[in-house]
Automatic annotation (TrEMBL):
It is an enzyme of class 4 (lyase). It comes from Rhynchophorus ferrugineus. GO terms for cellular component: mitochondrion. Belongs to the enoyl-CoA hydratase/isomerase family. This is Probable enoyl-CoA hydratase, mitochondrial. The keyword Lyase applies. Its EC number is 4.2.1.17.
Length: 369
């Protein structure tokens, strides 16, 4: 089965008065019997929450833009609303409508409470996990992190996925761990349950994980971003470890990963004062790879994910492991590990294909072997 997604991103507060949204509401009245087979999920990122609640997320469409237009017109006739190809084409041009398709076997699930998952990119080889607790500014509760782990498991098992992006909303990547959830924890409970241990699933992911951070990334949110392999930020992003302000310390890597990113002195300042670091400063100190405009962030990070996914998955994994070893061992041991990994690439078909393609001046055809 081929799944398609239209993502309409708009800040139009009066979305319910926009004809396109009205027609979608009409289409949502179709019987469920009509919604089997290939379909388009309509995901609305809008300030109009009531609109989101009333839209059905499974509407029957097919793959290309042209077919989408034709199918939209065909279905519209069934519910008595008028839609022209020119009108839909204008929607594509003016309202940031993007088509993504996910091949059979792609890991996209509607069975999550605190996150959303999708596969994006021209080859559908980038998995996206969107944190989705807007009322709590994406505070990281236990349930959310368990869902993130489950989504990572799904993307890891999907051979078509070459990179994974974790993101939040424009207002908050994640404003921290859920304080209400941990407020009454005891020391014995934390020890017995290995509290926060399962958060490490992100850092143990074999495939590259990219953080796309807009808004607040504080406390556990900052730690979650640092678990990823590369952090990209929107211009409005703010990073920090404010645990000191509520009588505790970072518990998911803040005191360990932060000094490795920014050095001891700056890490001490951030951890001991609870101050917030804007995106531009975070980029200068090495915490963030690049800063993008807020509305361009996810698209740009997906492009990076596509670039990574175009390489040999096997060699990508070896490269990621080699870089991570640099943070775990001495220089001499790290250089030895790297050399052995380098030698190991000569046992792979992808190394031979890559070098042969370079010599023959053609694109490589990697097979993950």
């Amino acid at each position: 089965m081929l799944f398609q997604y239209i993502w309409i991103s708009t800040n139009n507060n009066s979305g319910s008065n926009f004809p396109f949204f009205k027609e979608l509401n009409n289409l949502s009245k179709l019987s469920t019997d009509f919604l089997y087979g290939d379909y388009v999920g309509v995901l609305i990122d809008s300030l109009n929450l009531s609109l989101q609640l009333h839209l059905r997320t499974s509407l029957k469409f097919t793959a290309s833009k042209k077919i989408v237009i034709m199918s939209f017109r065909s279905i519209s006739k069934l519910v008595g609303c008028k839609t022209s190809a020119a009108f839909i084409d204008n929607v594509f041009k003016t309202h940031n409508v993007r088509l993504f398709s996910s091949p059979a076997g792609g890991y996209v699930s509607d069975n999550f409470e605190f996150i959303k998952t999708s596969t994006v990119g021209s080859k559908n080889n980038v998995g996206v996990i969107t944190l989705n607790r807007p009322k709590a500014l994406n505070a990281l509760c236990n349930g959310l992190m368990l869902e993130v782990a489950k989504a990572l498991d799904g993307f890891e098992s999907d051979s078509n996925i070459g990179a994974i992006v974790i993101t939040g909303s424009e207002k908050a990547f994640a404003a921290g761990a859920d304080i209400k959830e941990m407020q009454n924890n005891t020391y014995s409970h934390c020890i017995r349950t290995s509290f926060l241990e399962h958060w490490n699933r992100v850092s143990k992911t074999a495939k590259p994980v990219l953080a796309a951070v807009n808004g607040y990334a504080l406390g556990g949110g900052c730690e979650l971003a640092m678990m990823c392999d590369i952090i990209y930020a929107g211009e409005n992003a703010k990073f920090g470890q404010p645990e000191i302000l509520i009588g505790t310390i970072p518990g998911a890597g803040g005191t360990q990963r932060l000094p490795r990113y920014v050095g001891k002195s700056k890490a001490m300042e951030i951890a001991l004062t609870g101050c917030q670091i804007p995106a531009q400063e975070a980029e200068k100190m090495g915490l963030v790879a690049r800063v993008f405009p807020v509305d361009k962030l996810l698209d740009e990070v997906v492009k990076v994910g596509e670039k990574i996914a175009s390489n040999s998955p096997l060699i990508t994994r070896m490269c990621k492991e080699s870089v991570n070893v640099a943070f775990e061992t001495t220089l001499a041991e790290g250089l030895h590990f790297e050399k052995r990994m380098f030698h190991g690439t000569f046992a792979t078909k992808d190394r031979l294909e890559g070098m042969t393609a370079f010599v023959e001046k053609r694109p490589p055809n990697f097979t993950n072997e």
